[in-house]
Amino acid sequence: MTDKNFFDSVFEVVKLIPESRVTSYGAIAQYLGTKSSSRMVGWAMNSSHTLAEKIPAHRVVNRNGLLTGKAHFGGERMKELLEKEGIAVKNDQIINFKTHFWDPNIELEI
To answer: How crowded is the C-beta side of 109, counted as CA atoms within 13 Å?
Structure first.
């Protein structure tokens, strides 16, 4: 991944998150070998590229399953997209988060 910038690497991982699954900023950062850069992953998810490139940024939440990036979707759009995929959300938190969690560190070859 040395020939790509960090955001592009993040986007590649996010595109691999299966429908009806979610992951965390930290899990993506760890997969990319930059464990302490979860905030940078969040910035990548909040960039204008996620909409233009059809990146499923709604599938990336914080380590507790909270929809911390929902403000960048406008209103309840993030919650609506997750619920459309069968993921229940209450009070901006994913119900049964561990059941829906997809860990790129386990699911993808490093």
So the answer is: 0
The pLDDT tens digits for 28-86 are 999 999 999 999 999 999 877 777 678 999 999 999 999 998 888 888 999 999 999 99
pTM above 0.85, yes or no: yes
All structural domains of the chain with their residue ranges: 6-100
Class (C level, CATH) for 6-100: mainly alpha
Q: Are strands 60-61 and 89-90 parallel, antiparallel or unpaired?
A: unpaired
First to last CA, the chain: 11
- Residue 18 CB coordination number (10 Å): 13
> How large is the C-alpha radius of gyration of the chain?
13
